[in-house]
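Encode chain A's predicted structure.
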Amino acid sequence: MINFTGSVEVGRKIGALAGKHIKPSLLELGGNAPAVVLDSADLKLAANNIVFGGMLHSGHICMSTARIVVVDSVADELVSELEAIVKGML
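Encoded structure for chain A:
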């Protein structure tokens, strides 16, 4: 049995090999799980959740935050919040 959690790209390769060798497989494939940040968001909370979502299990989970979609009007402030959190982790 092959059990894989990860990207669609790698899952496709594993699935093809599993089929070729007639091995059962369980593939939990994630996409680019987005965080959507609107201008009404609590930016400190959003930044904290984005960092947590991206770094949980070192990013090796299918629902890891991999993309951020943010309204232009708050983008610079969100980046500042993200930088402050990550710098505090070093």
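Helices lie at 8-20, 43-55, 72-89.
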